[in-house]
Write a sequence for this structure.
């Protein structure tokens, strides 16, 4: 992480914890919204992501669904978190930064604020003209793409329709601590008690989602919304990485028939399938030295739904 604009060499991917060993996630610092869509697009918008990252993948899926691929440039970091954090490079599917001399994500933070203190996380929405971060919080970037850039894309898809907003917010809250962040709370717990707490709320919520999807096609209402994106990115990583590395092994997602059917429904939509890179997910999670010192990447699992993904990923 960065402290007053300097990269700390003793860097720990396991974030803060409380006195009981519970994982605490840092809040994002850059939270600007876009008020003038046309001039923002004219100035140039770029999205920095890593395909391993569920939060970044939220924004990737929204970018594809809303027809923003031609409008928002994409740059991709390598999946492994090294001693210098996220790096641009040559892993298949990764890219260069697009900025002379920038090889690591943390440099984007210090270009924006040379005194920045905090973690250098992805996703990052970047202002290409002024060379600075607009926003580094995926929940905000979902709103920026869907609502703030609506004058540009005019998409038929509305991921946050007025009449469902309260239900979407409630659903999102109901899966954030237990599921989206719940897997990290289990994986990065540093006490048995903290792990147990995380596992109980994770699997209680998954059991209730299983019931929900027995009679509902979508997370909220009868249409695709941002809640589906938020749930999807955790579900696709679950059996591939969390089940082993984060010890979320009470059950796998493939043992929840209704959730699995829901996952397959979403994977039939191109924007969901094309932004799911199993190679990045496996290489990335299993590179977390604090949890997997040997950094060995497992062979399996071979899952039924991989057939929906583009070949070679
Ligand atoms: N609240 C942020 C979280 C982003 C986040 O934690 N990203 C992780 C990757 S999945 C990251 O960049 N971690 C690097 C670090 O913590 O130093 C969001 O939703 O955008």
């Amino acid at each position: 992480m960065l402290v007053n604009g300097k990269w700390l060499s003793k860097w720990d991917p396991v974030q803060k914890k409380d006195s009981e060993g519970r994982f605490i996630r840092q809040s994002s610092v850059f939270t600007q919204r876009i008020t003038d869509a046309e001039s923002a697009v004219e100035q140039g918008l770029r999205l920095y992501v890593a395909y391993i990252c569920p939060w970044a993948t939220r924004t990737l899926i929204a970018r594809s669904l809303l027809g923003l691929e031609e409008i928002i440039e994409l740059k991709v970091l390598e999946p492994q978190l090294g001693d210098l954090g996220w790096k641009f490079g040559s892993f298949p599917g990764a890219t260069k930064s697009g900025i002379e001399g920038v090889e690591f994500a943390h440099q984007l933070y210090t270009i924006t604020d040379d005194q920045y203190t905090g973690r250098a996380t992805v996703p990052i929405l970047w202002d290409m003209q002024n060379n600075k971060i607009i926003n580094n919080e995926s929940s905000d970037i979902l709103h920026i793409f869907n609502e703030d850039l609506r004058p540009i894309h005019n998409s038929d898809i509305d991921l946050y329709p007025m009449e469902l907003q309260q239900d979407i917010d409630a659903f999102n809250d109901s899966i954030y601590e237990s599921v989206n962040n719940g897997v990290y709370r289990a994986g990065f717990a540093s006490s048995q008690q903290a792990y147990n707490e995380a596992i109980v709320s994770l699997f209680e919520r998954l059991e209730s989602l299983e019931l929900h999807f027995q009679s509902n096609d979508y997370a909220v209402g009868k249409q695709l919304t941002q809640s589906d994106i938020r749930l999807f990115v955790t579900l696709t990583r679950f059996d591939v990485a969390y089940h082993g590395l984060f010890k979320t092994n009470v059950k796998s997602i493939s043992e929840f028939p209704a959730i699995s059917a829901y996952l397959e429904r979403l994977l039939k939509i191109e924007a969901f399938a094309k932004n799911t890179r199993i190679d990045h997910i496996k290489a990335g999670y299993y590179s977390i030295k604090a949890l997997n010192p040997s950094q060995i990447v497992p062979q399996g699992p071979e899952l039924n739904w991989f057939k929906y993904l583009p070949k070679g990923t």
Notes: The longest strand covers residues 45-49. Strands lie at 2-3, 6-7, 16-17, 23-24, 45-49, 72-76, 124-127, 132-135. The CA atoms of residues 243 and 249 lie 5 Å apart. The pocket of glutathione is lined by residues 1, 15, 28, 53-55, 85, 119-123, 137-138 (CB under 6 Å).
